[in-house]
């Protein structure tokens, strides 16, 4: 008889060797390659190692400045010449406040509200502010001076994801994206912004056969008028060149630099089955319109045609989103199977996972109303007492605020929220962690990302016509992959923040949204927040100061009825906290482990291991 063998745990050294090989092979491919390797394996570091070993020019795009510092340190250690790409808000003296808060605010507002690029703001400064920017009055702005460099002089360029739009910083170089740039290549425009921008543009371009946005939406149903509009764009603005002049000079600031793209997207949009509109743009962008609020979301892919090779590094990837960003030709290379990941997590990293909830516990966005701070703090206190240490906590921003209002600092140590996790080593030495709740950015998040792929998805309903929620949510094959990436993958990211120094950790996960391959330690514990009467009884027992007592001894000291006293004492017995024996016509109760009870309630952990 054949027996299935458990996957052997891959050592950290073996995993890192495989990552090195995957990086080398990925850069040699003609198409982008997504390298799927769990956090802590050393993906980021090994990209720099690859550059040092091969001598090939590398450009790395990542999220935060603290990650820039990591890359700089690794490059210095390998004697690589590196440059951190200049940032408008850091390098421009007007934008960074060197010329005062008033100028800084004016430039920042223009950048955010008018959607103008840094170069456009400087070039149009006199039109925008009636005078040049102070940073360009005596000499060239430091931001533009910093951009004047020869990339060939540097072994490694380090920048934010947005720098990927600059062809000179990728041409002839090997490009690595470190983690998924969530939202960085997406731009959302409100219905009001689109209406004003498109209507203003149509008034300016009177050769287009439409007068304003409503006319455009209605007239595009007429195939002749629609085709006439498309032909105008093909002849006069096939590249959908930004209308900077219109944005700067339009009365009431109703113009917009992206008005040509918005107009074209509305013109050619196809309506999906769920009423979202999908519009592929000739310059490689994709636009979708939300039927609920008529907002327009645009996905702009990075400019990578001139790159020698492109890889993406992600510990918990959503492949569908990476394909939207880097193209359908993207290859997905996973370093381990699910079984090998399980063994690596358990045996190599020493991570033990205790699931403490059977529900999804969507704790972000509008779903944050489901946070139960009083009950959750019972769990946190129970973990603290069980492990004899205040655990570290990862949860949503919304949940964190509610917990803090209910005395969180009394029962946990350091905290962090989901939005600030990727690349973080804050909890690498934490041996006990809690992950409370799972992220959920709303059903429209799933619909939007699916619509960008031209996929129509919608949630399912039960036999009573009620939408399925929590772990029962179902958006079909494509939509579920977006859901899984938003939820289960982010929970896994949080779990893997703990014990990253190799010392292991036990992580209590207060959600059922955990990848199926992750092994759970023992059954789900029971969490009890005692009713007021129970606290009176516990206080009465403590005041007795004796290891044994009768029911009547407690009844005489509390305000609750004798029946309630009996009920609560039997509840304590059920969880092994006290015991009883028959004595005469009544019971004699004995303390077994009442010291396990916290100030907020009690957590019963059946047959589970403790922290390493």
Structure description:
The model is unreliable at 1-5 (pLDDT under 50). The relative contact order is 0.11. The chain has 23 helices and 22 strands. It has 612 residues and is of the alpha/beta class. The protein folds into four domains: 12-184 and 304-334, 3-Layer(aba) Sandwich (Rossmann fold), CATH 3.40.50.300; 186-299, no CATH class; 349-440 and 487-524, Rossmann fold; 527-604, Winged helix-like DNA-binding domain superfamily/Winged helix DNA-binding domain (Arc Repressor Mutant, subunit A), CATH 1.10.10.10. The strands form five sheets. The protein has a seven-stranded parallel beta sheet with strand order 3-4-2-5-11-1-12, with helices on one face. A five-stranded antiparallel beta sheet has the order 6-10-9-8-7, sandwiched between helices.
Task: Kindly list the characteristics that best describe this protein.
Rossmann fold, 15% strand, disordered N terminus, 5-stranded antiparallel beta sheet, 612 residues, 7-stranded parallel beta sheet, 4 domains, 23 helices, alpha/beta, single chain
Write the layout of secondary structure elements.
Blueprint: H1 12-28, E1 33-36, H2 43-54, E2 58-62, H3 65-77, E3 82-84, H4 88-91, H5 101-114, H6 118-123, H7 125-129, H8 142-147, E4 156-160, E5 174-178, E6 186-189, H9 191-204, H10 213-219, H11 223-236, H12 244-249, H13 259-268, E7 270-271, E8 277-280, E9 286-289, E10 296-299, E11 309-314, H14 319-326, E12 331-334, H15 338-348, E13 351-355, H16 373-387, E14 392-395, H17 397-404, E15 415-417, E16 432-436, H18 443-452, H19 476-486, H20 488-495, E17 505-510, E18 526-528, H21 532-544, E19 548-550, H22 551-555, H23 562-574, E20 578-583, E21 586-591, E22 602-604
Parallel strand pairs: 1-11, 1-12, 2-4, 2-5, 3-4, 5-11, 13-17, 14-15, 14-16, 16-17
Antiparallel strand pairs: 6-10, 7-8, 8-9, 9-10, 18-22, 19-21, 20-21
